[in-house]
Amino acid sequence: MRTKLLLAGLLLTMTFGMIATPSSRDPMSEDHNGWYNIETGKIHCFDEWTCLHEVTHKYDWENGAGQISETKEFKIAITEYIANIDKEQPLSMLEWYVCNFPGVTAEYQKDGWGGTAELYAEILTVSEMNGEEIPEEFVKFYDTEHIYKLWKQYPNLSSRL
Question: Residue 15 and residue 17: Cα distance in Å, rounded?
């Protein structure tokens, strides 16, 4: 069964454009458990946190004049956030994450994963996972009510292929 799911994932990846997420860079990897399909607007995910990440990608792509994560304003917010971190205090998980994010503040990962689109999805996911508020610099880029409402629908049978 796992082999059939992996092959289906590989076929979908080759057929449709997918947003690359930590879990979807390599459809044959053991961590392959979700993706957002740009072309169809559908999300496939297998666990709660991957679903939040993918729902946030969907919001990023479908609720602006282009990707919110690629706007000049979002990139300025990243710079401001990092500049405002008190480096004398221990970093929160989110602070550390943003300061070391692949393709933004550090080198892309070997598989090419990273960049502002991934950081956009991860800011909300890491904040939620760790019980942290979304930093003030980023709040205006997320409609959390809308995102959380969509997130409650996942995972479900159809999101699992």
Answer: 7
pLDDT range class, residue 113, cuts 50, 70, 90: confident
pLDDT tens-place string over residues 64-88: 778 999 999 999 999 999 999 998 9
The gap from C-alpha 134 to its chain's centroid, in whole angstroms, comes to: 14
Mean pLDDT of 86-108: 91
pTM above 0.90, yes or no: no
Q: Are strands 34-36 and 43-45 parallel, antiparallel or unpaired?
A: antiparallel
Cβ-contact 137, 84 below 8 angstroms: yes
Domain boundaries, the chain: 2-160
DSSP letter for each residue of the chain: -HHHHHHHHHHHHHHS-B---TTTS-TTSTT--EEEBTTT--EEESSHHHHHHHHHHHHHHHSSSS-GGGSHHHHHHHHHHHHHS-TTSPPPHHHHHHHT-BTTTBPPPTT---SHHHHHHHHHHHHHHTTPPPPTTTGGG--HHHHHHHHTT-S-GGGG-
Residue 148 CA to residue 154 CA, distance in Å, equals 10
More confident residue, 80 or 157: 80
